[in-house]
Automatic annotation (TrEMBL):
Residues 1-22, 207-229 are annotated as: Disordered. The chain crosses the membrane at residues 367-394. It comes from Dendrobium thyrsiflorum. The keyword Translocase does not apply. This is G domain-containing protein. It comes from the Eukaryota.
Length: 404
């Protein structure tokens, strides 16, 4: 069992990490403490960057990471408790002149993870299980969604990461979008956000990508299992999406910026500003960056700054750099407090966004309009049937007159 590493400043008398490669007093997961901006925060000269704006943004990111590190050692248990006791609507605040009783709050808040293939959405869900749904005998609860080629998720999968029937929120893992079929993927996202999501719901983008991978070998068993999975999914409750969480591969975006091939960056921006997400949530989605450990410290912070600048969002508001796997290739747990706190705070911020976006309940006027529209539809259908019936009678009468 690994012991918790105390968060200390360099030179503060702490010990080196177990491999002996890290700077004394710098835990291996506090990657930002090797940057010159961290020493600048201690009172030394401010490091020079390409421009003042980039230097300021880098400094803000370093201070944000320090805030997470400080909160991780003091507030992680309190934040866990808030999430464990959370009920839908607990974070609601008055706006628009209506009361909470007049707000249409669902029984369970739904968070939808969105992103392109391979960004680490399923690994993020497993990390949430580890951080939020701790159990003495089952440290991890891996996602159980049926996977296709290369382990890609095929169906929407609902996860109660708190492992409690009293949980006030759930997280939906979605199939990864494909850069070669962006328009089809965005149509699917619109369907999820506007019409709702259902556990084990079969997705068109996953089935089409699977079939295109094997064009010459159609499988009857695959189609049968897909139809049975879709039939099973129809029996689960459909949930309204309350907040979207966009997951992006930081290493892939760095390669995109370095090579000048900006398709991944442009596609991420289109997903982040998708109209259906903005209309339903009335706010920017939460942004989670993964695979940052594959970059150097300077590349990691510069790519984050460049991405946030390209998206037009602040580098430290609603953006989280989360490492889902450690250097041994296994999921990080609560013994790395910065990552654990970042995951918990990302979920908590998503719940805050969700509770701000509940629409008002339909009033008497709305129900009357619905009833009136149904009555008009029924009346038009009746007259259409009557017109068709009379036209057939007239035709029969003409045929009868000709025979006479």
């Amino acid at each position: 069992m690994r012991s918790t590493v105390q968060l200390q400043r360099p030179g503060g008398g702490g010990e080196a990490d177990g491999d002996g490669d890290s700077e004394p007093g710098v835990p291996c997961f506090c990657w930002w403490r090797s940057l010159p901006e961290y020493e600048a925060g201690a009172g030394s000269e401010t490091p020079k960057a390409a421009n003042t704006r980039t230097a300021t943004a880098r400094m803000r990111v370093v201070r944000e990471m320090e805030r997470l590190a400080a909160a991780a050692s003091e507030s992680i248990d309190e934040l866990r408790h808030r999430l464990l006791t959370y009920k839908a609507g607990d974070l609601w605040f008055p706006a628009g002149g209506i009361t909470k009783q007049d707000t249409d709050i669902p029984p369970v808040i739904t968070l939808l993870l969105l992103g392109f293939a391979g960004v680490g959405k399923s690994s993020l869900v497993n990390l949430m299980y580890s951080v939020l749904g701790r159990s003495g005998f089952v440290p991890f609860a891996h996602t159980s969604s049926p996977a296709g080629k290369e382990g890609r998720t095929l169906n929407l999968e609902e996860h109660n990461v708190l492992r409690s029937m009293k949980s006030g929120f759930c997280v939906f893992d979605s199939p990864g979008l494909d850069y070669d079929h962006i328009s089809e993927g965005f149509d699917e996202v619109s369907h999820w956000v506007e019409d709702g999501v259902r556990h084990r719901q079969l997705c068109h983008i996953s089935s089409s990508s699977t079939s295109s991978s094997f064009p010459s070998f159609p499988s009857t068993s695959t189609s049968t299992s897909s139809s049975s999975s879709a039939a099973a999914g129809n029996r689960f409750i459909r949930r309204r999406v309350n907040c979207a969480v966009v997951v992006a591969n930081l290493s892939e975006l760095h390669s995109s910026l370095a090579s000048g091939h900006l398709q991944p960056l442009d596609a991420t921006r289109q997903l982040f500003y998708h109209p259906s997400i903005r209309e339903s949530c009335n706010d920017a989605p939460i942004l989670i960056l993964t695979h940052g450990d594959e970059l150097t410290e300077d590349e990691r912070i510069d790519t984050r700054v460049a991405l946030c600048d390209y998206l037009g969002v602040a580098e430290t508001s609603g953006v989280y750099d989360i490492l889902c796997l450690n250097e041994h290739g296994v999921h990080i747990d609560e013994f790395e407090p910065v990552t654990a706190y970042a995951v918990a705070e990302a979920v908590y911020r998503a719940l805050v966004v969700a509770d701000r976006c509940h629409p008002p309940k339909p009033g008497l006027k709305d129900w009357l309009l619905v009833a009136l529209s149904w009555a008009m539809c029924a009346l038009s259908a009746f007259f259409a049937f009557l017109s068709c019936f009379c036209s057939k009678l007239a035709k029969l009468n003409r045929d009868y007159q000709k025979k006479r």
